[in-house]
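Morning!

This is the sequence you dropped in the shared folder:
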Amino acid sequence: MLHRDYLRTDKRTKDILVFYLGAGMELGYDLLARTPARALDPALTTTVSTCMHWRKRTDAPLRLIHDRSSNLSKDKWLWERIASAEIENVVLGIPSHEVVYPLNVEETEFADSHTHLQLQFCDLVAGACAEWARRFMDLPHDEGYVSKLEDSGIKELNLSTIWPAPEVDPEALGMKGWSGEHIEFLTKQFAEIDKRRARGN
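The structure's back. Tokens below.
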């Protein structure tokens, strides 16, 4: 699929995809094929990013409503660990890109979008973003609709948020000094939580 996309997309997207294609050639297909299901799914990371956005702006507890048909609901066990109130208080990262734990999530409800107007609105925005992005993949799309989406400001919503930015250099992205320390932090926290629970604490 990535090879197909590489052949039909614009240069900026090619510059991003080439890293994935190179990894496939370096590591071998068998290793990539053994990658766990949904390991690269954006549902988890975008939910964490949304929580981080609000966590840095308010101390009020967060209540999330997520579509129960999404992949996040399939990885509910992992989400509950990441959102656990048992995680140690910490601020990691670099200025303007801090990671704050715990996420302060009071409740996560996995709901049916048919009964929640907020989820229907999210579906509408997601559909619009997908239609706008289809033209960059050389896929069939409604030119008139895409033109109206452009006028609405969808480009600013997509680029660097939903659609990846063309920059890959940490300095150009404003991420110089950023590391994966928050992943190591979470891994250690999960282990500590498991130990405490095993002791009955």
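Headline: The longest helix spans residues 181-199.

More detail when I'm at my desk.
O.
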